[in-house]
User: Fold these one by one.
Assistant:
Number 1:
Amino acid sequence: MKSILSLLISLFLVQVLTGQNDIITAAEFAKLQKTDKNIRIIDADKASNYKKTHLKNAINIPHTTLYREDNEIEGIIKSPAALANIFGSKGISETNTIIVYDGGSQKYSTRLYWILKYLGAQNVKVLHKDLNEWKKARLLLTQTVPGFKKTVFNVNLNKSIYSDLNNVVDAVTDNNAIIVDARTPAEYNGTSTDKPSEGHIPGAVNLPYTELLTSTNAFKTKAEIEKIVSAKGITPDKTVYLYCRTSVRAGVIFLALKNILGYNKIKVYDGAYAEWSYNYELEK
């Protein structure tokens, strides 16, 4: 009876979390490892955490290593060619089955997920969710750093999920678009002392990314997420523009809308608050 109940719970989680099969459970990952020899695993967490322990054969690519260093604006991703060179140097190709995870916050794994999908990688999955779940599924953990031969990552940009500054300027006055700020209410209102902010992009609605997560940072159910986003006026018929300070937190909402709710018109504004505040005034 207990095994049947566990199976039913697993099936429920699969149904809730895998609208387009890009969010996988630890059990699904364990099975995939046995059947798919084309896997590359990316640990998107900090290098210091990776050194302590990580999944066997995981390659560490902290999200902070993927940003431009020659720009006054914080957090803008490197050029597609530079990004492709980084992934290729780690032995990752756009043809691999790429599994991304982080320490459990969902922020870093979803940021890399969006970057990889933008570059044109077709088969990218986010492992849901953290070390405790992996131990239950008996996933192998290690401190050993794997070595893979360099390869070529061929870029085929998916521009439909990317937004630049000009796109957002147009979206401000577009009735068929909605701009979503994934930061805290204090940041949105310009009252934050933790993360300095002068306000938000004009017309943006505030949806803190944490509202889509449980107290353990797992994604809430499809029904719960649907209720939350619809209350904000976020509907599948509108083009959704997501941002936060540097669009790391925006990735969590991107994954939820894309994979749990099945929305297709979603863009991440990569320059985010950092770029907008550098160029334009903000609302409070």
Number 2:
Amino acid sequence: MAGLSQQEMNLLHVVQDDFPLTRQPFRDIGRRAGLTEKETLVLLQKLKSENIVREISILLDSKKTGYKSTLVALNADEWEMETVIPRINAHPGVSHNYLRQGFYNVWFTLTIPAKRVFIKEIISLFGSKSLSYLILSSLQTFKIGVRFAIGEHKKNIYRKTMRIRNDVTRELSSFEKEILRKLQVEFPLDPDPWKILSEHCRVNPDELVKMISDWKREGIIKRIAAFIRHRNVGYTANGMVCFNVPEQNINESGKIVSQYQEVSHCYQRQAFREWPYNLYAMVHCKEQADCNTIISNIANKIDCKDYQVLYSIKELKKERIRYFMEEK
């Protein structure tokens, strides 16, 4: 891949996986990439400074942490966007916001504490304006988890194995929330990151690693990994496909769509009379023509003729949600 050395490509391939819960994780990551610990840390710092690696952090599960998320589709003209977009992006619960093609041209994800009401929260973002919008809540998750192929690493562009998470949730203690809040920082690029994090959390390093291990087992922590700016490694075509699938075929269709390596996310969402689409898939390719080919193949495979492809025109916001900040 242009601009990246073979060592950098090897490392990018490895750091998208879950970090090992060892006292020297970068040493073990380096071994997998054919690097020393020092080389691993230096290259990761370089890749971050060059905006290849967006961040290295701990990814939490919204439902397990007492939050809820939804996708929102909004119709706004050019004048309305001038005032509405800044209000949407300023909300700490908005992680992704894209300008896309079509009648509903602003698409954002909103994550809020479960006790709050989506409708009230969304309307508050519009100020005095009355806009057409849809709350597209997720009814079922078929696939989630991006993993981009880098250089010669062509296999498993995305995680094909869908992790079945335990839906049982429990109330987190105030102590757990405090530790999880403090863990939502940039993962230290240090030979002993747990020591730095444990000092920040004011717990013993071994105790912290055990807590993280337990939370991962419960599904509260999804993984610790590097998140890549996909456009900066060549994946410039980003299409959201909305399929109108008969209700009786939704499970089978979701499983089929999820098998495609180019599909990173696949959900069943709420459908509406004015927007009858109920199966959503995110498709990433290096060229839009490749995306169109993949999408056409998927549509044929699931026998769906009614679908829309919404390519992103502009990324308006992309930030990881920080949980429990309102309790700080």
Number 3:
Amino acid sequence: MNYSTQTYLYIDATIGRVGAFVLDRLARILNIIRCVPRDIPQAPKCIVISKFMGIGSIVQAFPFLKYLRKRYPTTRILLVTFKDNEVFSQLLSAVDKAYFIDKSTLLSLAVTTFKALRLIKNEKPTITIDLEVYSSFSRILTFLIFSPYRLGFFLINTISRKGIFTHLLYFNRFQHISRVYKNMAYLAGVPKEYVFDNEELTDMLKIPFDSEQEAEKILRGLGVKDKKIIFININASDLCIERRWPADCFSILIKQLLKLQNTAVILIGADKEWEYNQKCIEQINAVTGEIKVHNIAGRSSLPVFLALLKMGDLLVTNDSGPMHLGDLMGCPTVSLWGPGTPQSYAPQNSKHIVIYHSVYCSPCLYMINERPCGGDNICMRSITPQEVFEACVQVLDWRKECVKVK
């Protein structure tokens, strides 16, 4: 039976935490026996990077991957991640090979973990870098790879990590995640003078040549090729469903956006989110009659979806993976925040507007294991459709084209 992300996180925080604690004590003994030198080697044969939760976090790690590739051009760089990220991971030019773990069931988790460990250990990795902060599973995997140098994060203390990891970096929640990852690169031996611009980071994706042609074909099929294209992501993963802005707020916003001249609204998402998108469209039509809002959730491959975002004039999205992908592809974006903190995770460019109301319990995501609101996400409900609409107009400089909105 498949289980939810929340169930996986519960198992990780209970059984996984005990297992990681025991292995950490064992690792301390082995570290004394093996006497691993402190200095990172100048030419490691192979580096393994573990990053499991979310495409967005992998996107934020692009500078980190770029730094490693420049510093160690002949080193094999491997990525181990969840199968959910398989298609995206295979597009990464900085990664020589990726291994995927299927967490959909306990059996598949065990089988695919064993297989990945066997294949990775055959590579004889010199360094393992764990980019997860809270995951006990990731720590256990880091230990079982048995590389001489193991780099990871700590939060409040190092008590349960000094054995599994040979090198630790303080995870500063008050710094942007991209800066946190950069400092992990420095810990791995990357010179601090390395700097890259956004274009260089975008080049890290190996998007097939025909993806843009397929994207154009989709837009022509929808009859929106010559319109201003507004992509809207009304979804958020079950990591924290409270990140969703209410569907009725999105409905009001969409009706406002469609009053702009020559615009087309397209709802995006994964295949399993198509139905939720459709309910939002039906809610709009129930009040106003049929309005042409397109739903392409799950109707394209990831490379084609990236090409679509590149052609977009605006992306409106909750804090989620598509937000980071839109930023990566240069699509002007308005992002909506509540449980998460934009200070640490929002894209940083001039084409991005963050809308965030700092209620007392926000941010709670990554801070505590249960939402204090019990699902009643007042942080997201405090965002009004009018302020989101005005942000959209600001991003696209459409004020002269706006009709009066009642």
Number 4:
Amino acid sequence: MACRDQLIRPLWPALVGTGAALLACLVLAQAIPAKAEEGDLYQATVIVTGTDMRSRPTGFARALRQVLVKLSGETRLRNDARLDPFAVHADRFVASFGYKDQMAGIKVHDDQGTYDRSYDLTVRFDPARIDKLLADLSERPFGGERKPILPILRVRGVTGATYLVSTEAPQAADQRVSLFNAGILYGTEIEVPRDKELAALSVSVVQFPPELGEAEPSRMLVSGTLDFQESEPIGWVASFHTRFQGADYAWGIKGANFDEAVNEMTRGALRLMSGHGAPQ
């Protein structure tokens, strides 16, 4: 296999304890828009068990699909059967990879050990080989403008409380983390609105959905509702709407966790921006 283990340096110094890690993540999600550098478009991080060959091939395969979607904007590549034979040998496209222990700094206890320990596997793919693979699939890297996404979201949570997602709303802490992660996952900047920005758009919990249109050509405004429904197997039902290049688009997802609901919003916006058509 033409790849080697490489230490992936963390974005910030190692933090001790899950509370500190969560706090750092929340600060980042509020203060820094999620935006990937161009090189990051050829890189993906997935969660695996252990650092040996038990889960590495599967991890490489998942990372390969993530990168192809992020790079091209064609979200249907997530489940495209044409990729199956390439995913089986995803190591052929890998330039380097590295692991980060999700429980670093936490004392080993019970059966935690190292065998069943969870790791972040970060995979860096060879750009030339990935570009050729996309060409073989009649796709190409999305070279157009990746507009920042401005999500205008109303959430009805597990407790039944309804609120808007903003940088200041204390109830929206988990949603801010999900939006930050989605931006990294799909290489697209996501700007969480401030309370005063929502007010300027005349958006409120009662006055929803907003009439946003395409008032800001420099950003893609996406409005949406996310409702927790106990009747669903997992719980969340989400619907999204945007106006793009003079046309209205609506899409959604049901029976998903909150992270996947936010990912669905991001995938739909990316597919539109990349010229692949309506969200699917």
